């Protein structure tokens, strides 16, 4: 039982560090109001989680990579906060583009990941 918590925690810390690194890199390269970093992270995370779920990995790997790493890597809360910031700035074009791309591309990426992992 304790081993499972350690697996999830270690995976989550690695996922969070990768998310932070990608976010810093993307924001340093593209100065824009559109949150490309979070969009990229959540769409790639949807694909990877779909792939992991449909793959033949054992329960230990599912905990470490699925619950831990992908839980630390993807960021639904940041998506919501950035969406609210765009609303408060009345940047509706970017807001609706961001929300639409995140939901549609995330679902498509998850579906593709599920199909690839089979």
Spell the H/E element sequence: HHHHH
Kindly name the structural category.
mainly alpha
Integer count of domains: 1
Globally, the shape reads globular
Question: Can you give the mean pLDDT?
Answer: 97
Fraction of residues in H or I helices: over 70%
Number of helices: 5
Rounded to the nearest angstrom, the distance between the terminal CA atoms is 29 Å
Major sheet description: none
| Proportion of residues in β-strands | under 5%
Number of strands: 0
**Cα radius of gyration in angstroms:** 15 Å
Low-confidence stretches: none
Binding site for Na(+): 71, 74
Organism: Listeria welshimeri
Pfam families: CRCB
Transmembrane segments: 6-22, 34-54, 60-79, 91-116
Structure notes:
The protein has helices spanning 2-29, 36-54, 59-73, 76-88, 92-117. The chain has one domain (2-117). The protein has 118 residues and is mainly alpha-helical. The longest helix has 28 residues, at 2-29. Helices cover 86% and strands 0% of the residues. The two termini are 29 Å apart. It is globular and about 45 Å long.
Brief sketch in words of this structure:
Helices cover 86% and strands 0% of the residues.
Key features?
mainly alpha, single chain, 5 helices, 118 residues, 86% helix
